[in-house]
User: What shape does this take?
Amino acid sequence: MSPPPDHAIVIENLCKTYRSRDGKERPPALKSVSFTVPRGSMFALLGPNGAGKSTLINVMAGLVVKSSGRVSIWGHDLDDDPRQARRAIGIVPQELNLDPFFSPRETLEVQAGYYGIPKAERRTDEILEAVGLADKATAYARTLSGGMRRRLLIAKAMVHNPQILVLDEPTAGVDVELRRHLWETIREMNAHGRTILLTTHYLEEAQDNCESIAILRHGALVACESREGLLARLTDKVVEVRFAAPLAGIPPALAAFAPVASGADRLAFRVTRGDGGVPALLNALPNCGLAVADISTTEPDLEEVFLRLTREDTERP
Ligand SMILES: Nc1ncnc2c1ncn2[C@@H]1O[C@H](COP(=O)(O)OP(=O)(O)O)[C@@H](O)[C@H]1O
Ligand SMILES: [Mg+2]
Assistant: This one.
């Protein structure tokens, strides 16, 4: 057997342009997207609605035909070796497409049959246990809650024991409690060595759970790096100073710091982290002739990176 690849997924110059019913080309949904997902990682593909996330996932799933580019899954080219590529990946689609009259156990058994897995090698009950559906094994799918259906879809994607699990918006429309449970399930699978690629438009979920993050915007990749790398892109932080009395104007001693009034009695300063900006400001404050009541600082988070990278008023494609 060949050794496992360093990259679970390699995407190179992937392009997709859909056609409308009358055959006209629509604006491109994917524009020469390239990135790699390291083996064993927990990787988030982030982007606002319509950014192209599902299109990318559906190309991997064989549901959408790409216009051009190359996709390699576990070392198997999707065009040259589609069967091997599909074997290595389990995909949980965004839509909850389950047969309502099948129980979770039947759903997994049918899927195992589809993959030609002999009865003796099936792990149906083990998988149901892993996603927390063991006690619902024989219930009709239509009686399951939204969160349970989502977990059943994850179970279905796990039937052929793929190296890679891909989840398209796994937590969309799921309540807080179930969301936490879903994340536990996903993290557990990652801890067992499985590579996870997931899409989400919930930023804080990517920030909390994923070490690598790619950001799509209008079909183009605008960032792809470690969570720490993304956060380090933000070199500013905001220092807010509240004074003991309302201000008549910006004190001359502070004018060089270009503050903006953030309230009648307060000023906000954007300073560069780590280059002496904060000490310089603190040294200047006693010279402004006003009593300081409070100081607070705000560290940037991924939301700010995301907003900057996806903001509509930057250049459009
Ligand atoms: N089957 C389709 N036919 C035509 N256009 C589509 C189809 N699926 C998606 N699109 C378009 O492609 C773009 C990307 O959509 P999608 O991949 O669903 O984004 P996301 O999953 O990030 O919300 C959107 O403009 C969407 O309208
Ligand atoms: Mg989508």
Observations:
- The mean pLDDT is 89.
- The chain is about 30% helix and 25% strand.
- The pocket of adenosine-5'-diphosphate (ligand 1) is lined by residues 18, 26, 29, 47, 49-55 (CB under 6 Å).
- The two ends are 45 Å apart (CA to CA).
